[in-house]
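User: Study the chain.
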Amino acid sequence: MYKYSLDKSSKKFICPSCNKKRYVRYVDIISNNYLDYNFGRCDRESSCGYHSSPSGNTIVSHTHVVTKEIHPTFMNDDLLGAYGKDYNNNCFIKYLKMHFTVKEIKSAIRRYFLGTSHHWQGATVFWQIDQFMNIRTGKIMLYNKKNGKRVKEPYSHITWMHSLLKKDNFVLQQCLFGIHNLCDYKTDDLICIVESEKTAVIMSMLYPEYLWLATGSKSNLKYELIKPLKNYNIVLLPDKSEFEDWNTKAMFFGRNGFSVTCNSLLNQLRVSSGSDLADILI
């Protein structure tokens, strides 16, 4: 028996190729969870033929198979208070002080529950808190206090709170950064999604009338993460050189009932690859 197999139930989804509801998704038979939406096969083989299978599909024994769904692990709410201090020594906050007022920064800290970690002196904690106020995890990153860039030398300074706290049997299921603020917005409000957490925070101060969310990486724009936004108006704002990929996903989301567009602003500007909105506006 293979670890990943096509769902044997009668459930069908909309095919990302032909837009017909004949799409069978791949399932991890150990966790009983669906894989990424792109992995599946269209039943309309004669006219469509879409089939994308996951790599690393190994054989597992029957004893490893479980039937109940695995739920994400949630972290203790007390962590927000434990790390929600020492902002004078937070390098990202020091950078923000060069461009924004103390009032604006305090508002952003409260909005996103920004924290400070001493894992690296002056590092920032970006908590992933879902729409039900459950803490999924926290991403810890170190920034240069002068230019606001991530510290990548002599190595990339990025780690996860659940790793540092050595949580046993931790089940990580990420959510969009900032989505806990969704309750403050109506369905006709605009939801803006960028790649980096830093950019979401900065844009929330420049354009506070919109809800700014972040995927955390260019590859983390996934169906499961944006599912809570099904009834909202969404605009994707990819980094420079990522427009084609995000626009393809926007069209796929649109075929599956989302109201979503992909903005090509950065793709049209003469800026370096990887530049984001914060880079050009700050």
Residues 243-255 form the longest helix (13 residues). The longest strand covers residues 123-129. The radius of gyration is 20 Å. The chain is about 20% helix and 20% strand.
